[in-house]
DNA sequence: GTGAACGTTCAGAAAACTCACAGACTCCGG
DNA sequence: CCGGAGTCTGTGAGTTTTCTGAACGTTCAC
């Protein structure tokens, strides 16, 4: 899955240092090259200098709002797609029109995996050259990101949004034990402040839908005191 | 769907920056090469310079109206088709006569998919070389853009204009989940400011007409918390 | 002008979802 | 075999989402 060299170059723009760091770090870890800016002015300069493939752009910036930044970018001939970060209650109002180009948006607070998934989706849509299939496969389990659908042995499995995100995270890390806090950090919104026991609940839900057959070896396995793994058959 | 190289070169002319941007962005994303101008003078210059295949032209411009622009274009030997943007209350007689050549018009406020569809229709009519079929097919569901007709298993289904546009948008994105705001942005007029619940209503209407057979697997499916998809059977 | 078709909005019911809590169960060391 | 930590799962409250029907407005044909 990982290619040689970075997947794409991203420009992250947010005035809150915490969020900017959070995003930069996890996007970098996800294989992207990342440059960041704290306001609209710097964002425009960075876009000029680095020619990113996509920008992650907070709509609320100290000097000018995200739409203005986008307009200025477009005016100077930059046509890379933008993923907007909006507050949840901005929806309906200002968000309209954000999805007309290749652009998209996620609402704050977001979950990290969600952002990565949306970035990949936008890039896939705008530069279809990279035949990233959008389908993740582990044994006879398939997860189709575009259709937002999961199949086991060809049979569709209905999952709730959270169940879907959790399974997606597990499938992206097959045969790797993931701790409950790791899972929490990736799948739940970044400001979630319940405790990790909810992961147990959702693992339980998932098992009921994914690991039904009592004869087949379970895909989702518990590592006591450590976390959970998605085990493939091949890998023993 | 995406070809190598742009589909055609368009000239967008509108004095309102928002509309100009909105059009440019979504047309560019639809695969066209776009240049734009804010008034008649610039439009004539741009036409001379870029030799577009079609112009999208607001009839109300600050310096001269769209018909004058067209006349001057024709006078200087430019015979590419024009898609006029007119206000809804423009008198019939002004608009009449627009559809006699290859030209066509849409009324403001328009929906983005409508404009794209009209542009494609005009280009198809004027340069029939491109064998764009104008018929979109998903399983046994056919949508004929030219005839403005929908058939399921050969049987014609009567749809209202909005139902037709909605189904069209779904059929252009089979097996891809579309959020309610995405749908709103593409199918409804750009200045629509109701909320997304109207999408739910129209999906409901569509289902009643398109997914009648309770035995057949439903084409239109809800992805709770995410949006709606048009599912094909083949896609497994 | 009148009726029919179409479009929009609203409101309520039903269904689904998220999450906390708590008791039951399992594993493991001693 | 016991106890405790860790894990699993049922229950239920609160919220969100979806669906539907009905009311109201607009447009169009006659």
Question: What is the strand and helix layout of this fold?
Answer:
2 copies of one chain form a homodimer.
Chain A: E1 9-13, H1 17-29, E2 33-37, H2 40-50, E3 54-58, H3 66-75, E4 82-87, E5 104-108, H4 112-126, E6 135-138, E7 141-144, E8 149-152, E9 155-157, H5 161-172, H6 180-187, H7 197-210, E10 220-223, E11 227-230
Parallel strand pairs in A: 1-2, 1-3, 3-4, 4-5
Antiparallel strand pairs in A: 6-7, 7-8, 8-9, 10-11
Chain A binds a DNA duplex (30 and 30 nucleotides) through helix 5 and helix 7.
Description:
Chain A is 35% helix and 21% strand. Chain A is of the alpha/beta class and 236 residues long. The first copy, chain A, has 2 domains: 9-126, Response regulator (Rossmann fold, 3-Layer(aba) Sandwich), CATH 3.40.50.2300; 135-230, Arc Repressor Mutant, subunit A (Orthogonal Bundle), CATH 1.10.10. In chain A, the strands form 3 sheets. In chain A, strands 2-1-3-4-5 form a 5-stranded parallel β-sheet, with helices on both faces. In chain A, strands 6-7-8-9 form a 4-stranded antiparallel β-sheet, covered by helices on one side. The first copy, chain A, has a two-stranded antiparallel ribbon with strand order 10-11. In chain A, helix 3 links the parallel strand 3 (54-58) and strand 4. In chain A, helix 2 (40-50) runs parallel beside helix 3 and helix 5 crosses helix 7 (197-210). The longest helix of chain A has 15 residues, at 112-126. Chain A binds a DNA duplex (30 and 30 nucleotides) through residues 160-163, 194-195, 197-198, 200-205, 207-208, 222, 224-225.
């Amino acid at each position: 899955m990982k290619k040689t060299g970075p997947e794409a170059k991203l420009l992250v723009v947010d005035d809150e240092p915490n969020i900017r760091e959070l995003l930069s770090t996890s996007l970098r870890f996800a294989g992207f090259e990342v440059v960041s800016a704290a306001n609209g002015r710097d964002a425009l300069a960075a876009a000029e200098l680095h020619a990113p493939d996509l920008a992650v752009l907070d709509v609320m910036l100290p000097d000018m709002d995200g739409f203005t930044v986008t307009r200025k970018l477009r005016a100077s001939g930059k046509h890379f797609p933008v993923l907007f970060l909006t507050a949840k209650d901005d929806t309906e109002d200002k968000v309209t029109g954000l999805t007309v180009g290749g652009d998209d948006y996620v609402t704050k607070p977001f979950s990290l995996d969600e952002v990565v998934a949306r970035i990949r989706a936008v890039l896939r849509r705008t530069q279809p050259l990279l035949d990233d299939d959008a389908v993740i496969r582990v044994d006879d389990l398939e997860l189709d990101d575009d259709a937002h659908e999961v199949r086991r042995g060809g049979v569709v499995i209905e999952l709730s949004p959270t169940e879907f995100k959790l399974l997606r995270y597990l499938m992206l890390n097959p045969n790797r034990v993931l701790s409950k806090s790791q899972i929490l950090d990736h799948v739940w919104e970044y400001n979630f402040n319940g405790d990790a026991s909810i992961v147990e609940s959702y693992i339980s839900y998932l098992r009921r839908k994914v690991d039904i057959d009592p004869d087949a070896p379970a895909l989702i396995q518990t590592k006591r005191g450590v976390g959970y793994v998605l085990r493939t058959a091949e890998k023993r």
